[in-house]
Amino acid sequence: MDPEHIFKTETKFVETAYIKNILNRIILYLQAGFPVHLSGPAGTGKTTLALHVADFLNQPAVLIFGSDKLEIPDLIGGEIGYKRKLIVDKYNRRVEKREEHVQQQWSDGRVVTACKNGYTLIYDEYTRSRPEVNNILLPVLEEKIIEIPEQSETFLKVHPDFKAIFTSNPVEYAGVYKSQDALLDRMITINLENFDRETEVSITVAKTGLSWEEAEKIVDLIAAVRNLAQGKMRPTIRGSIMIGRVVKQNTIPIDPADQTFREICYDIIGMEFSEWGANMQTRIIVNEALSTKDSKEQKNNEDSLKSEDFTKFGYGLEQKSKIRKE
C-alpha cells in the first residue's frame, strides 16, 4: 500500500446549521455500522464532507478515486514479484552448504489496508469504476469479511473500526456506470443538492477572502442564473468561488455595470454549457440575472431611503407634538 494514499485530513472546514445537520446524520449511520453513500451533482461538497467526517472520527483515511481502469488488484492487492534469500554455511574449507529460498511478495490494496487497520475508506465517485470490480465490496459491507484468493488466509476479518464513505455523481454524467442494486442496498444514501444561501455565502467568504456583503452579491447572482436557466445549466458553489477569487485578486468591482466583471461571469458560468451556441445563451442568461439582481438592489436602496425619510418625518411629528403639549 502506497503511504501517500493514507493521510490525516485537514481540520479547516466551514460549518453552518445546514452542514452540521448532514454531518450529524453521516456520523450516526457510520457509528451504527452502516456505510454511507453521498450522492449528488458535482460541486455539492461530497468529497469535502467525507474527508471532514474522517477527520472528526480521528482516524486515517484511505482514498480511492473511481475509474473504469481500476481493477480488483487495485482494491485488494496483488503479487509484486519474488523475494530471494540465499544462506551459505561453510562447515570447513572443503564442505559448503547452500540454502536458497524464493518467496512470493504481496502488496495489500487500499481496501485491504483500510479493512486490516480500521481506517476510513473514502471511495470517491465509485460509480466511475466498473460494477464487476466493485463486487469485491459486497462481503466487506455485509458479512464484514474480505476474500483474498492468492493469500494463505483466504478470508480476512474486517477491523471493527473500519468505516466506508462512498460518493457518486448522477448516472447521466459522462463516464458513470449504474451501480448494482446489491451494493446500494448495503449503504445509506444521502442525496445532496446545492447548499442553502447561508452556507454558500460562508464558503465563498472562507475560500476567497471577500466580505460577507461582497460574497452575497456573487452567490445571489449564481442562484439567479440557476432559476433563469431552468435546468439547462446549474452553476454550483465552485462558480461563486472562482468568480470571487478572480475579482478579489485583481480588485475588480462586483458591479453589473463593470464590463470586466460581466466578462468574468460569462466565462466562468458559461462552463456549464458545452453545446454550439453556448456563448450566446450564457450571455443572455447572465445579463438577465445581472439585471434582476441590479433591480433588486436598486429597489432595496429605495426602500431603505424611504424608511429613513419616514423615520425622519415621524421624528419631526413627534417633536412637534411634544412642543404643542408643552
Describe this structure in words.
The protein is α/β, with parallel strands linked by helices and 326 residues long. The protein is built from twelve helices and ten strands. Strands 1-3-6-9-2-10 form a six-stranded mixed sheet, with helices on both faces. A two-stranded antiparallel sheet has the order 4-5. Strands 7-8 form a two-stranded antiparallel sheet. Helix 8 packs parallel to helix 10, helix 9 crosses helix 10 and helix 10 packs antiparallel against helix 11. The longest helix has 48 residues. The C terminus is likely disordered.
Strand portion: 15-25%
Which CATH architecture of the largest domain would you pick? 3-Layer(aba) Sandwich
Q: What is the gyration radius calculated from CA atoms?
A: 29 Å
> What structural category arises from helix and sheet content?
alpha/beta
CATH class assignment of the largest domain:
Alpha Beta
**Overall geometry:** elongated
Q: Whole-number average pLDDT? A: 81
Total number of helical segments? 12
Q: Give the CATH topology of the largest domain.
A: Rossmann fold
The N- to C-terminal Cα distance equals 89 Å
Q: Largest sheet, if any?
A: 6 strands, mixed
Spatial order of the strands forming the largest sheet = 1-3-6-9-2-10
| Proportion in helices | 40-55%
Q: Spans with pLDDT under 50 lasting ≥5 residues? A: 301-326
The strand count comes to: 10
The CATH homologous superfamily name of the largest domain equals P-loop containing nucleotide triphosphate hydrolases
H/E element sequence: EHEHEHEEHEHHEEEHEHHHHH
Number of domains: 2
